Amino acid sequence: MLARFREAQLPGIARLRRLEAAGQLPAPMTYPGRQGRPSFSRALRAAGSPAVIAEYKRASPSRGVINLDLSPADVAKMYADNGAAAFSVLTEEAHFQGSLQYLADMAFAGVPMLRKDFLLDLLQVAETAATPASALLLIMRMFDGADDVREMIERAREHGIEAVCEVFDEADLDMARWAGAEIIQVNNRDLDTLVTDLDVSRRLVGTRGAGELWISASGLETPQQVEEMGERGFDAVLIGTSLMSRPDPGAALRELSQVGVRRKAEREARRVAERGTAR
Q1: Dihedral, CA of residue 103, residue 107, residue 110 and residue 116, to nearest 10
Q2: 8 A C-beta contact, residue 234 and residue 205
Q3: Under the phi-then-psi rule, with left for phi > 0, alpha for psi from -120 to 50, and beta for the rest, what region is 97?
Q4: Is 210 exposed, middle or buried (0-12, 13-18, 19+ CB in 10 A)?
Q5: What is the Cα–Cα distance from 210 to 153, expressed in whole angstroms?
Q6: pTM above 0.90, yes or no
Q7: Burial 250-264 (b: 16+ CB within 10 A, else e)
């Protein structure tokens, strides 16, 4: 599957190279009167433990068509109204029926957005910078080494875009750290086999380093699973298929996002009680 995903990127990269040679690459987005793109990591840390990154996902290789009826704008409003700390937006066209345009379509909600795609080339970072995305996904298994990943991270930072480094095992995690990753996303679905196993998150989060922000993605559907990931130390969970396949994605999200809200309130109450006892 990864080889197919990589091959599907090549025509788009070739198009970007032609645009670059002609001096026609799209210009980075500017934010007059603002401090820049809304911060992806700050939004996750502020929302709860764990925050929910809600994904707009129309189809996938493992599930086929999920939901083609809801527009990006429809879903952005549902998600923003029901507790999403951030959006994940599938932009890959060949296998996920995504589009770069969806980022623009969902930006009105003012929620930080992750561009989720199989990015390989520095020109794709420039392409992302021309959209309102606050973050982009870098899948460790798509790269030959940490130096390539580091280049992508640094180029993204130049545009005020955060890099979410996706790992599936310890080797992926080592590569992400060598590359200077600050945001680690554990994908519970092996992209080679498409098998999902939450034990991947359970195992890897035990190695979490100080200052890192951790996200668990794939295979999460229930409040109990969201609660567990928060208990184990994840800052956020990314949920797509289980939301998009529901008749009312907004109501499904509300049930999951309330887990982090409740946990955050309970932590605050404990802090207040401890301060009172200390006095």
Answers
A1: 0
A2: yes
A3: left
A4: exposed
A5: 19
A6: yes
A7: bebbbebbbbbbebb
Rounded to 10°, the helix 146-158/170-178 angle is 50
**Amino acid making up residue 211:** G
| C-alpha distances in Å from residue 119, one per residue of 78, 127, 146 | 28, 10, 14
Q: Give the separation between CA 123 and CA 246, rounded to whole angstroms.
A: 36
Sign of CA dihedral 110, 213, 52, 97: positive
**Per-residue pLDDT tens over the stretch 206-244:** 999 999 999 999 999 999 999 999 999 999 999 988 999
β pairing state of 113-116 and 86-90: parallel
Q: How many residues does the chain have?
A: 279
Tell me the C-alpha distance between 207 and 220, whole Å. 21
